[in-house]
Amino acid sequence: MVLEVAGAANNLGNLSLFMREEAYLKQQGLFMGEESLACSQLSPSKTEEMADVVQYRMERMADELDDLERRGLFSGEEIAEIVRRRRDFEYRLKRRSPLKQDFIAYIEYEKQLDALRSLRKRAIIGKLADKGIFEKNKKKKSKIWKRSLSDIAGVLRILDIYRMVTMRYRGDLDLWFKYLEFCRDKRHGRMKQVLAQAIRYHPKVPGLWIYAAAWEFDQNLNVAAARALMQNGLRTCPDSEDLWLEYLRMELTYLNKLIARKVALGDVTLLQHSNNDSDQWKEENKDLLIPFIEEQASDVHEGALEKREELFLQQGALVLQTIYHGAIEAIPLSITLRQKFVEIFDAANITLCDKLKVEVLEHLKKDFLHNEDYWDWFAQLQIGYISDLNNSESSKLLTKLDRAIQVYEEALNILPTAKMFSLYAKFLLNMVTSDGENSISAVNNMFVDDQDAISSILKLYERAESSGCLNEDLACQYVTFYLQSGRLNEAKNLAKKLCTGKLAEATNLWILRSSIEIKCLTNKSLSISKEDLNSIFNLLKDVLNRLPISKTENLWLMVLKFFSNYKEYFQKLLMILETALGKAGSSYSGTSVASAVLNLIFQREGIQQTRGMYKRLLSLPHPSVKLFRHCIELESNLGFVGDKFAITCARNLYNSALDMYPEIMELWREYYLMEKKAGTTESANAVYWRAKKISKDTMLLVGTDL
To answer: Which phi-psi region, left, alpha or beta, contains residue 72 (left: φ > 0; alpha: ψ -120 to 50)?
Structure first.
């Protein structure tokens, strides 16, 4: 019956084979655009060959489909639909240039089909079991439900499609990993072959070597093969930090399993020194101990195995040390690699690793003595997992904090830089700020006096200033800390002192100082005196004239908002702004400031004053497209609510912008749409033909809905 259905899908009349296949492909919509033209140019022999291949593959599915129908998993109509869908996919894969999406869609369809088959099979078996025909747990089941072709054909077909797509798109790593994941999920024997192919085509991808070694280690339980893969991967990718770290973790895991075996045999000398640690280790690794205890009763070669394990354990430290030395020889300048080595050794909880950890720390200090990140990391390492300590362990906590502070002090003696001061200050700030994500902040509520911590932070900033290490970022932190402490006047005086010294060009510091000055004025009284206004205006005028507008946009926005209620000073600021915009080298510098000015004038004085202002701004050199669009938006919004003169102004703005930027087709499109909505058909067509003269490529105007 299946063969009849498959043949019926191919019968489209008494046409020749060539015409029949071509008609079928067009009917199914498998070839579109240029590919349809390419198919029509194929010779009849090529088309016959493609059809023969598809028909051959369809006929090979007959036994599987018969089995599905015989078992009652799919009805005749469903089988016919499966044949139709598979034929569609097969033709897509056999065309001249199959797309990657075609292969992926075919795979997804087959996965869903196989999942449906499995679900229906379980449902039928469950029903039969309920009726007492046979028990689900019995080894002897009815003949009809023994493993048959339909149980494996779907997986084999998916594997075959994966093979074809990975051969065509060999450079797609995502496809290779999907192929590998499918093989692993199905526990198929092709896994090793696929891994070899993937590594052959992508030997420089560390992730593939790690994946292959993990599969050998975890699934195949073949430590020798996993170690060989890791070593080959390191020869190919010696500069991969992930490979070195995963190799170390793998060897530590293997060593841990051997230790678990020895613990099961009663030898705990390789664990940490206290009995409590041994008991804790047994509890944490009981999943490893259970299989080894079971094996102990049945292993007749226990003595020989113990000797082998003893030999390996004696060489364990040498193996780990060899990995570490190989890693630092291959990547000598990576501080993160060595830091991760320390973290791995620290988490291992094995005596052998403690000695290696000390060695790594010594090398770190020797090689990265003048690296601020090393000192910061080393100080954080002294604290460890501080959140695990409770109130009864306050002495341990304070000891850890003292050690961390000693590390920072030593770092400042060796490396007195702005970055080192900043890292130290950040550490101290974490002690007095409430941050739930930071374990150091737990100190705030337990053991450390806030006033002492604040005093230490201020002394640190003073040391940075006296040693000449106070850069812009550190200075802003210094002033901000005074603000957070509620000392507004001290922050104001400090900002004034810093801005008149070496940091006179520090934009962020000036912005901070200006915000503090404004805040002081507003807090002083509701009505600000003329003298105070003159004082702060002269201060801001000096900095705004000295620094380029590209660096002071935020300061401009703050100052304009503050002086918007004082017309005299606001007009003076507008004159300063025009001068600053004229000096700007880029057309985009200061656009946000100019837009903010127009918005303020429009809200307070209306559209007439706004038009005068934007004409002044647009007459400056290099007005930006963004500024033109903002002005057009103001006018068009008024025009759409009935102001006809606003439409005329918007039209003039568009013409000015297009005279300056005729190549921006999006601007032409916006102009056309405005004319279409608020103008006439003639004016809209005029814009369209002007755009056509500028750009001969009509595809650029597709979005105008002409």
So the answer is: left
